[in-house]
Specification:
Elements: H1 3-16, E1 27-33, E2 37-44, E3 47-52, E4 60-64, H2 66-73, H3 79-84, E5 88-92, H4 94-106
Parallel strand pairs: 1-4
Antiparallel strand pairs: 1-2, 2-3, 4-5
Helix pairs in contact: 1-2
Length: about 110
């Protein structure tokens, strides 16, 4: 399954039961996949959506491989180890990057 298909499944799962993001602040997570794909995960008004490119000002940018991002979406990536070994680069607030992982865990 492609990254986009997995992301769409993730968004559908959350929006079908947004209880875990209802109280989240509006945020934009920009995902840069080895410069092959660039999109944003947008949390706004208790819903989540995907935006292609850089439509919004990102609060945090995650740069990684497609393989690592798919692992992250499945809560199968040790983000600390990936960060320390260069498999995951974060521009901006590292705490927000961890927040995305926290949301993913809640929807597994």
């Amino acid at each position: 399954m492609s990254v986009r298909e997995e992301v769409n499944k993730f968004v559908e799962k959350i929006n079908s039961n947004p209880v875990h993001i209802q109280d989240e602040k509006d945020r934009v997570f920009q995902i840069d996949l080895d410069e092959s794909e660039l999109f944003q995960i947008v949390i706004e008004g208790g819903k989540i959506s995907i935006a292609d490119g850089e439509k919004h000002d990102a609060n945090v940018t995650l740069r990684t491989s497609e393989k690592n991002f798919l692992k992250l979406l499945k809560d199968d990536l040790n983000t600390t180890m990936a960060f320390m070994t260069g498999g995951l680069k974060v521009d901006g607030n590292l705490g927000l990057a961890l927040k995305l992982q926290e949301i993913v865990k809640k929807y597994q």
